[in-house]
Amino acid sequence: MRRVVALALAVPLLAAGSAAAATPKSPLAAYGYHLYGEYCLSCHGANAGGRLDTSPNGTGAGPGRAQQRQQGLAPSLQGVGALAADFYLRAGLMPLRQIGLQPQRRAHALFGNHQIRALVAYIATFGGPPIPKPKPSLGSVSQGLHLFTEDCAGCHQVVAQGGYVTGALPPPLTQGTTPLEVAEAVRIGPYVMPTFTKKAISDRELDSIVRYVEYANRPEHPGGWSLDYLGPITEGLVTWFIAIPALLALCLVIGRRFQP
Amino acid sequence: MSKAPLTRRSVRWLDQRSASAPLLRKTLRYLFPDHWSFLLGEVALYCFVVLVLTGIYLTFFFVDSTKEVVYHGHYAPLYGQQMSEAYRSVVDLSLQTRAGLLIRQTHHWAANVFVAAIVLHLFRVFFTGGYRKPRELTYWLGVTMLMLVLLEAYLGYSLVDDLMSGMGLVIGYSVGLSIPFVGQNLMNWIFDGMFPGSARLWPRMYIAHVLIFPILIGLLLGAHLLLVALRHHTQFRRKKAQTERTIVGVPLWPGQTPRSVGLALGTAGFLFLLGGLVEINPIWLWGPYHTYASTNGAQPDWYLGWLIGGLRLVPSFDFTIGHYTVVPNPFWGGAAFPLVVFGFLYFWPWIERRLTGDDAFHNLLDRPRDAPARTAIGIGMITWIVLVFLAGGADRTFILFGISYTAQIWVYRVIVFVLPVVFGVAAWWICKELQASERVVRERHEAEAEARLAKLRG
Amino acid sequence: MRRLANAVVSLLVLLLGRGRRRPRGAERLVKEQPPNLAAELGVLALLGLSSLSALGFVLVYAFAEDIPAATQFLGLTLGLALILFAFALVVVGLKLVPTEELAEEYPPHEHPHEQQVIAELVEEAGSGITRRGFFKLGLLGAGGALSLAVLTPAVSFGPLFRVGDFLRTPWRKGKRLVDESGRPYKASDIQEDDFYLAFPEGVGSAGEEQMAASLVLVKLPVDQLRLPAQLKGYDAHGIVAYSRICTHAGCAIELYRAPLYQPDEPKPALVCPCHYSTFDPATGGTVTFGPAGRDLPMLPIYEDSSGYLRAKGNFDGPVGPSWWGVRMWKAQP
């Protein structure tokens, strides 16, 4: 579906050449337009219309996908809004390290805060949803756990520790993931994540999910050392690498019976 | 007349009422040969004692019912959620009962350590030939206990009805279902209907876990220990006096008693330390089980990890003949694999007797290097099981180290059959080399002694 | 004051003095162990610390409500109490109690005389029985029959022979698809790139736990659907409904791989988190990766005149993990 939309939009816009979007740009958006030209144009095309390349390119095979002729380098960004631009840029997912592989978060964002705001403003001129304002304090952590289990835990694990799905690595949501990132990702559905619109998950329900993810970042652990809430794997490691050596040591001490 | 010391009075009282003084006297001087590895079985025994004692406490709090209730307790994330009474009783015990979490966690850690100790004990018995005549019966009782313990532990953590263990329960059901011809009838019978079964399932599991299996294990354990005592312990040949006919050891009283009691208390103490300091199975985080819910990263407890590896590795096929699905897929990894392993364990004494022609009584143990073939085969089997076990965690390996999951599965499918042979042959070779080097050292000592003697004469 | 001084002096003498010794010259059964004052004091100290720790446990328990990390302190005090006691006993065993190395004969391999006597006892007792074979047959037969009879009530544990349940589902023609709270789904509710949990209307919360009740709904662009001939028309304008229960080992399929940008990303797929069986929703639930041996059962659905989603009939195959007769089942109308 998106391929068709991208095609439909990109062709006339490419033809229009350097004629910019009809809405006048603010100084921030103008700076964003500059940055877009430097960093994003080569993949996302002029006027954020996406780029099609029907010649076979070497992007090739990725996880869960055989080598095939690529029909587009990057989708159109018209209509994705400040929501998507802010998400991808702030997490460092864009620029992509390599086309065809799952976008990776960057430890150090490539762009500074001002640059991100500029790019977001530019993309926003093409329309689309604004940056959301999640209010976790208005959500219910209990409803959050319930919704998270139904919609998210299958990929992200019930305590948001991340996991595996054939062909992708749903990341953990606990290492400094902000409520804003969670809210944005839910609405976008980046890479192979499903897209949850307001119809499926209302804003209030999203507040609950965000509240739950916040809780999952630091859950109660009355039982002691929490072993990263992963469950039996780490418990098995403790059994074999802490408990057994300790008991073996005790056996070695007690077992010295015979006089030499 | 002054009163005799308390000791004498007590022994006299007991002997008059039970005629047990001769038996007691023999028992007090029962000899324990010296080696640290002989204590592994004791560690397992003390874990069992801790399990029973903590388990009894837990039975007073657990509710064995799958009736749906709504949680109105203190733990916010679960407030207002539907769950079974069983799950709620464990959440309440963990989060609201004083010392409840300590006892529950100690119970679960004890189970994990129990199986590990049994496995180590099994390794010791296997690699030293302790199962040979006349101790085959003792050995078979031990292998049976291992099987029962695995089932008992699986039942135990499944009773909690949390999301992770519920997924494990349906997988166990599916493996049972996949038994050719009878699987469906058998599972229908055990579960009282199709999964998730009827309201009778949970009380059934509960009674199995707190009564039937503990009694069975206890009886087998009693018989196992009795046989060990009747036949007396095996021993390594550490001192010249230790032979097939003469046992050298430390008597139960007074030498062994403080050591064994110390080991018991030390094991129990360490388990309680774990139970208090390291969180295990935080079921309030997983949430209650529903058949239509699941989570990523669900794993069984470590001692069943070899089975999840088996289930993940087998390629996608049901073995069919026409319309008959003779062997559904989960059978290979979930049932056939453990059957082969336990079959190997049960039949091994007989196999070794046939291969070596050795039908003699053995009270002396081999060092692993003294029986290269046995060591090699044992190492091969262990390699096989460990590789399948590691395959079960391939998704975690992908997440941690970035090695593609699909690639790992393909590699594992090959090395799971190749590496055991390689490691077995390597183990055989190492044993042979160790034996050879001992021969060299012995010959050198003899030559040096001869040279010294010659020098003295000459 | 003097009494206190006396008490302290007495304590010191008791601890550090010579202690009680056996009279010499008595015949000994257990060899003599030389005294070791340091070890004795060490043992006493360990036992003392252990007692303190055990009492600490009681104290922590009493005030558990007010102590943060109560479980940790409870475990620490009780564990240390036991371990310190254990260390005390180990010191006793290694230093204070004689470690005798004794030798004795193993019990004999066998007792031929007793074996002979037992065998003769059994054989001679049967002197009154002239038809051994029949007798044995009779005993064994009756014993076997009795065992069978005694075990027979166990059949009532469950429907051992009645397995029709495996083919029954709560879905009927015309049943509406509802969400977990019972609200019916409209076709317009289902959006692409998202996945939904659905149940038959009126099934109740206990009924929701039936394996054959839960569905996973996804919507694909109609031009991407490539359903095989026998599943043609099972979708409602691209909305497809599958059983949520994996056909491998019964876990719920709660992973939906929904690519944002199809050209570069893996195709849509339903994945099970237990062993990663992967099913293609566009081709009728065929297995594309993982150990599942059977396609995911598909439920035919349609959109009624009010826009609600309803079932057109039953699944195209039995729900859940496979069993021996799973491929003998024909789809019910």
Arithmetic mean of pLDDT of chain A: 83
Main sheet makeup of chain B: 2 strands, antiparallel
Counting H and I runs of at least 4 residues, what is the number of helices of chain B?
A: 16
> Secondary-structure element order of chain A, as H and E?
HHHHHHHHHH
Ends apart, CA distance between termini of chain A: 82 Å
What's the SSE pattern of chain B?
HHEHEEHHHHHHEHHHEEHHHH
CATH superfamily of the largest domain in chain B: Cytochrome Bc1 Complex, Chain C
Q: What order do the helices and strands come in, and which of them pair?
A:
The complex is a heterotrimer of chains A (260), B (458) and C (333).
Chain A: H1 2-16, H2 27-39, H3 41-44, H4 81-90, H5 113-124, H6 141-151, H7 153-156, H8 179-188, H9 203-217, H10 232-254
Helix pairs in contact in A: 2-5, 4-5, 4-8, 6-9, 8-9
Chain B: H1 6-18, H2 21-28, E1 31-32, H3 40-59, E2 68-70, E3 82-84, H4 85-96, H5 100-128, H6 136-158, H7 163-177, H8 183-191, H9 201-231, E4 246-251, H10 252-277, H11 283-286, H12 305-313, E5 319-321, E6 324-327, H13 330-356, H14 372-391, H15 394-401, H16 405-457
Antiparallel strand pairs in B: 1-4, 2-3, 5-6
Helix pairs in contact in B: 3-5, 3-10, 4-5, 5-6, 5-10, 6-9, 6-13, 7-8, 7-13, 12-13, 12-14, 14-16
Chain C: H1 2-16, H2 37-62, H3 70-96, E1 102-105, H4 112-125, H5 132-151, E2 177-178, E3 195-200, H6 204-207, E4 215-219, E5 239-243, E6 255-257, E7 269-271, E8 278-280, E9 286-289, E10 298-299, E11 301-303, E12 309-311
Antiparallel strand pairs in C: 2-3, 3-4, 4-5, 5-10, 6-7, 7-8, 8-9, 11-12
How would you characterize this protein structure?
The complex is a heterotrimer of chains A (260), B (458) and C (333). Chain A has helices spanning 2-16, 27-39, 41-44, 81-90, 113-124, 141-151, 153-156, 179-188, 203-217, 232-254. With 260 residues, chain A is mainly alpha-helical. Chain A has 2 domains: 2-59 and 67-124, Cytochrome Bc1 Complex, Chain D, domain 2 (Orthogonal Bundle); 136-217, Cytochrome Bc1 Complex, Chain D, domain 2, CATH 1.10.760. In chain A, helix 4 (81-90) packs across helix 8, helix 6 (141-151) crosses helix 9 (203-217) and helix 8 packs across helix 9 (203-217). Chain A is elongated, with a radius of gyration of 24 Å. Mean pLDDT of chain A is 83; it is low at 12-22 and 57-71. With 458 residues, chain B is mainly α. Helix content of chain B is 67%, strand content 5%. Chain B is built from 16 helices and 6 strands. Chain B has helices at residues 6-18, 21-28, 40-59, 85-96, 100-128, 136-158, 163-177, 183-191, 201-231, 252-277, 283-286, 305-313, 330-356, 372-391, 394-401, 405-457; strands at 31-32, 68-70, 82-84, 246-251, 319-321, 324-327. In chain B, the strands form 3 sheets. Chain B has a two-stranded antiparallel ribbon. Chain B has a two-stranded antiparallel sheet with strand order 2-3. In chain B, strands 5-6 form a two-stranded antiparallel sheet. In chain B, helix 6 runs antiparallel to helix 9 and helix 12 packs across helix 13. The longest helix of chain B has 53 residues, at 405-457. The radius of gyration of chain B is 27 Å and the shape is globular. Among the domains of chain C are: 35-98; 166-328, Rieske Iron-sulfur Protein (3-layer Sandwich), CATH 2.102.10.10. Chain C is built from 6 helices and 12 strands. A 5-stranded antiparallel sheet of chain C has the order 2-3-4-5-10, with no helix packed on it. In chain C, strands 6-7-8-9 form a 4-stranded antiparallel sheet, with no helix packed on it. A two-stranded antiparallel sheet of chain C has the order 11-12. The mean pLDDT of chain C is 91. Classes of the chains: A mainly alpha (260), B mainly alpha (458), C alpha+beta (333). Chains in contact: A-B, A-C, B-C. At the B-C interface, helix 5, helix 7, helix 8, helix 9 and strand 4 of B face helix 3 and strand 1 of C.
